[in-house]
Design a protein that fits this description.
The complex is a heterodimer of chains A (205) and B (566). Chain A is mainly alpha-helical and 205 residues long. Chain A has a domain of 134 residues. Chain A is built from eight helices and no strands. In chain A, helix 2 crosses helix 3 and helix 4 packs across helix 6. Chain A is globular and about 55 Å long. In chain A, 32% of the residues are buried. Chain B is of the alpha/beta class and 566 residues long. In chain B, 23% of the residues lie in helices and 18% in strands. Chain B is globular and about 75 Å long. The chains are: A mainly alpha (205), B alpha/beta (566). The interface between A and B is large, with 68 and 84 residues.
């Protein structure tokens, strides 16, 4: 690997999550598998349950379904997510806010929409992984720019953007300044109104 | 807590049941409220400042939580575990939203609190279509006044005198929310089309109000409100009712039958405990059904006896008939003119700050459809959701800083136009008991029949054309996916969650199931105070009217109870 190779992706998991994962690893080891198998029973089978119809909304538990992505797929997700949203001068990269973990959570979920996107994304990550995991910088970039028009890339980018901009870091980057208690709603500022009037004038309104 | 003997049993704890409990307990009557769902406490269960990243799948809707993870709906949505319903073969689609929680759908509702107008109560007199109510707007107006003052409704504005769009008297409404940038923006297009844009009436406390917290102008109302600054039965109606000492609430009590005594009067109800499966009968001097239009009809239809072999009050086959919903559809637009505006906080009261009331009165012949719709318009720089990736087109090969800049520029430049229109009741829309299917406890379930009329289909097509014109005038482009064919564009039956009718009020026992006070023609100590009693389904969202009618009916019940007339 050259010096500018992507850093190995480290999951952005909290302590509670880590404990759950240790449980999975332990179970797999106890079963004699020897390796950690990520969610082999996913897809309508017993342990792939959803969060139910009455989950705790105030302090949501980690999504309960086993994760499907292999370490290589997770690493590929990290490389691609950071190709889409690398760190900017003022905002962290996609991998730094845990987007690969979100992709894993998404493709592993036992709900119809997510199951539908699973095939495309998991296969896309496997295919791309073969081209980027051990490649040099130039080949890696070429492999990613070659897939821009594919359904895999389009879905993956939508997910990455959506997942990134629904974090606090994403809010800051896109300019969402709400979600704070206020004593009154003053409405838009004079600057906003003035900018709007200029646009309305152009439209003849 | 009150104990037996109860004066009144109320079935349901939403808008109708909550208001009934509020007034009846305050009138000194001992009330037992039976709620099919679990206890629910907005103060501790509302995810006020949570962001999508805190929720599984960034909070998107799933079959477990169809309106999103944070939506204030417990154990329900389009399907409720163990409690199926069916749609008849050959019917158009119908879908039925039910929660299983104290306060019912008032926990998550849109908080749009519009009064019906004078024409809405007399549709048949107006143009020969639909049916007249046994009351006029003037009969209900004082109850609208009281309801607005009680629950807290924003939207005060100088009287406009628009036809069939009542102004509230001074003192009823609180301050209107200031229009946000996108609301100032779209108003110009409507103005150019000669269409008024006026303050929304939202059930949100926007100024100091005794006994209530004021809105903090943040967090979506659909999650509910932990500080009780919007209207929920659980924060506004049930606490004062409990404080009287006259209210007992039993949760997980799924009522399926009204029990009659030998004289033919209601003596109580029977329910199944959803947790234990045990059946219980409870008694009272009178019974109020407010379980929601579907469930209320189901209870009556399942209450069979020698006197009522086809269901209680159904001797003339009226129960379940005249089921209505609102016509609904949505078109989204993107507007370059809104790109790059300076960041501003567009959170605010939970409802839209302004809206477009129906403007086509007197133009029906030219329009080609008889009844109108209002427009609810959403936009602004609200908290990003997972769908924000759709601000970039699939074929825009943007990554990195170019992608960040593009998103920052376009964020907040989308506007969604939602129509909500009147439906005329028709003979093809009704519910009945399914002859075969039963719920987990062996109780027959509802089977729905649905067919939109031509009036609704043509109205839907007009909505789309209006929205496209507005988008065009604003220099925008519509987001693909909309339909211009009204039949394809129109919502499913029930999808607007405004299902009303089924136990309508009327002038006599031949044309209706209950009288103008929701009092059963057949069993005078049985009342209905939910949306089932509505005779028409105007474009205005029904909750405020359900509340006002429930208050009026409960007042009548309390008067009769005091006279010993029940």
């Amino acid at each position: 690997m050259s010096d500018d190779a992507p850093k190995p992706y480290v999951s952005k998991i909290d302590r509670r999550t880590a404990i759950t994962w240790i449980g999975i690893v332990g179970a797999a080891t106890a079963a004699g598998a020897g390796v950690v198998v990520y969610g082999p029973k996913i897809g309508g089978q017993a342990d792939a349950r959803g969060y139910g119809t009455d989950p705790n909304l105030v302090d949501p538990a980690r999504a309960p379904w086993p994760r499907l992505l292999t370490p290589d797929q997770l690493q590929t997700a990290s490389i691609l997510a950071d190709y889409i949203l690398p760190a900017s001068a003022t905002a962290p990269s996609a991998s730094a806010v845990g987007i690969p973990d979100f992709v894993d959570e998404w493709v592993s979920a036992p709900y119809p929409d997510q199951i539908k996107s699973r095939t495309v994304i998991v296969k896309g990550l496997s295919d791309l992984g073969r081209k980027v995991l051990k490649a040099n910088t130039a080949d890696r970039a070429a492999a990613m720019s070659a897939i821009l028009a594919t359904p895999f890339f389009i879905s993956f980018r939508k997910l990455t953007i959506g997942a990134y901009y629904t974090t606090k870091e994403g809010f800051r980057d896109i300019g969402y300044i709400g979600n704070v208690a206020r004593v009154s709603d003053p409405g838009p500022s004079e600057a906003v109104k003035a900018a709007l009037e200029r646009e309305l004038k152009k439209l003849g309104l | 807590m009150a104990s037996e003997p109860f004066d009144v049993i109320i079935v349901g704890s939403g808008a109708g049941g909550g208001m009934s409990a509020y007034h009846l307990t305050k009138s000194g009557l001992k009330v037992l409220m039976l709620e099919a769902g679990r206890h629910y406490d907005p103060a501790t269960e509302t995810p006020m400042f949570n962001i999508p990243a805190d929720a599984p799948l960034r909070g998107v809707g799933t079959p477990d939580k169809p309106f999103g993870f944070y939506d204030a709906t417990v154990d329900g949505g389009w399907e409720v575990p163990n409690e199926p319903y069916t749609v008849a073969e050959g019917s158009e689609p119908f879908t039925w939203w039910r929660p299983r929680m104290l306060g019912g759908r008032t926990n998550h509702w849109g908080r749009i609190a519009l009064r019906f107008g004078e024409l809405d109560f007399k549709p048949r007199s107006r143009d020969g279509l639909g049916y007249d109510w046994p009351i006029t707007y003037d009969d209900l107006a004082p109850w609208y006044d009281k309801t607005e003052r009680l629950i807290g409704v924003s939207g005060a504005a100088p009287p406009r005198g628009l036809l069939n769009t009542p102004d509230s008297p001074p003192g009823c409404l609180m301050e209107a929310a200031p229009p946000r940038a996108f609301e100032i923006f779209y108003e110009r297009a409507f103005r150019a089309m000669g269409i008024p844009v006026i303050p929304m009436h939202g059930a949100v406390v926007t100024q100091a109000m005794e006994g209530r917290n004021t809105c903090i102008f943040a967090t979506p109302c659909g999650r509910g409100c932990s500080i009780g600054a919007n209207f929920q039965s659980t924060t506004v109606l049930l606490p004062p009712a409990m404080a009287t000492g006259n209210l007992t609430i039993t949760t997980n009590a799924l009522v399926y039958q009204v029990d009659l005594d030998k004289a033919g009067k209601a003596k109580g109800v029977t329910y199944v405990d959803r947790k234990t499966g045990e059946h219980h009968s409870v008694t009272a001097r009178s019974v109020v059904l407010a379980a929601g239009s579907g469930e209320t009809a189901r209870i009556l239809l399942n209450s069979k006896s020698a006197a009522f072999p086809d269901g209680l009050g159904n001797t003339n086959g009226m129960v379940g008939r005249y089921l209505m919903d609102s016509v609904g559809l949505s078109v989204q637009g993107r507007f370059p003119a809104l790109e790059g505006l300076p960041p501003t906080n567009d959170d605010g009261q939970g409802t839209q700050h302004t809206y477009v009331p129906w403007w086509g009165y007197g133009k029906q012949k030219d329009l080609g459809f008889p009844r109108g719709y209002h427009i609810e318009i959403g936009g602004g720089r609200r908290m990003p959701s997972l769908g924000i990736g759709s601000y970039v087109a699939d074929d825009e090969n943007l990554v990195g800083d170019a992608l960040r800049d593009t998103l920052r520029n376009r964020y907040g430049s989308g506007i969604g136009f939602d129509g909500r229109g009147e439906m005329i009741p028709n003979d093809d829309c009704y519910c009945e008991l399914d002859p075969k299917v039963k719920d987990k406890w062996g109780i027959p379930v509802l089977r729905f029949h649905w067919k939109w009329g031509d009036a609704e289909i043509r109205q839907a097509a007009h909505m789309v054309q209006t929205f496209l014109e507005v988008i065009d005038r604003l220099g925008g482009t519509p987001v693909p996916g909309y339909e211009t064919d009204g039949r394809k564009a129109i919502s499913k039956g029930g999808e607007m969650i405004h299902e009303v009718g089924t136990v309508r009020m009327g002038h006599n026992d031949k044309d209706s199931v209950v009288n103008q006070y929701g009092q059963s023609w057949a069993v005078p100590n049985l009342f209905v105070t939910d949306g089932a009693v509505l005779v028409s389904s105007p474009d205005k969202n029904p909750t405020l009217s359900i509340l006002a009618l429930a208050w009026r009916s409960s007042d009548h019940l309390a008067t009769l109870a005091k006279q010993g007339a029940l």
